[in-house]
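User: Run a structure prediction on this.
Assistant: Running it now.
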Amino acid sequence: MNRIDLAYFALGTVFVFFGLLCCATAVIRKHRETSVLIWLGIWSGMYGANLLLGIPAVFTQLPHPMQVVTPFVRNAFAYLLLVAGLLVWAELTVGKMRRFTQWMAIIGTAIALGGIGEFLFTNSGNRLIPYNNLLVVIALLSLTAVVAVPKLSKKYLLFPHPVLAVGTLAFTAEALFRNISRWLALPSRAFPLLDEFAFALFLFSFAFVAAQKVFTNERRLLSIEKELEIARQIQTSILPTSTPDILDLKVAAAYEPMTAIGGDFYEFLPVDARHGGFLMADVSGHGVPAALIASMLKVAMQSVVGCSHQPAEVLRVLNRTLSSQLRGQFITAAYLWLDMEERVASYSAAGHQPLLRYRQGRIEPIESNGLLFGVMQDVDYPVCAMTLESGDRFLLYTDGLVEPENAAGESFGDAKLQRVLSDAQTKSPAELVTQLLAEVRRWPPPSIALQDDITLMAIDVA
């Protein structure tokens, strides 16, 4: 190689390596926001490969099959370089400019397909190059206008920065100079490497802004993750840390959110050694909004301590307290009151899953539902009264326990739940809760995560 070809070889190698580095970084990080790195890597890699394939000494060292396809590859790169650059540009813009750039990329792809098809059939794909060049001019003019005018930069760029402005203006100036040189019939190599250095400046200015976007998004995600961890700790702190100590009762409960935080809630209202209430609730939706409403439930529970022995009143007061704050969301709830002195129980619910009672080998679903919280402020809730017998077992749960589906699309369902409950009759409440969670986790395929929060509470009458 002569010195100029060696310089082309070095630059082409740098562009290819930089492209591979961008793509590898995007794959390792696995965030949606890294798509800008993928397109940047493809853009740089194609430009570098095109440079290398255009060096005679490199071309002659290629195996014969690769020499045959090289003209086709270079023809494809001549069209597709614009498309890759437009897709990078689209990732760094917002609003109308992003949509405009995406439409430009679609038009550029159509021109590229036409040019590549023409090459396949005629061995010459230059007929559409003028249209491709026109698209390049439009893209450069729009990009230059956006980066050069501060008002437009603030409106349409994700990260307006002087580095991008310098790179864009330099590349645009070089493109204008190259076209003027052609009109003036100057030798094509009068200024060798000018195109490549201008493109390198242009490319790396894009890379700088793309890196800013990726790292800013990652810092934002890390901040969100820290805040979610704090929210998870706060939510955990509002749940009971121990089960109530009520005579002749054994209680176990578990809460498993679908995400870091969820919208299920449970609470114990032990009055004394022989009386206690058990509440379970499920806020519609998931994540932070549902968790905030669940926290409101914790506060609202303070207002029902005085009427804890009246399930209908407990639900009525909670509904009246929360309805005006729910903003279109809803809560299902169930409340069970156990009086171990009189050996009686009473139960009421607001659109919740049925209470399951296991007695002497039989499982009985108990429903006593009124309207969900958040539909109306003044609602009356029916109450189901029942006697207690030694060996009774009650199970309160949210719908996340029965909704998971297996590979065949069959939900875990009430039948499967009742079968597990029957098989575990000799197990303690804590063992039953553990077994139910294990069965539900095994039900869907390993690749599918649970789609709802799961909360359950098992209560045995000794």
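The first strand starts at residue 249 and ends at 256.
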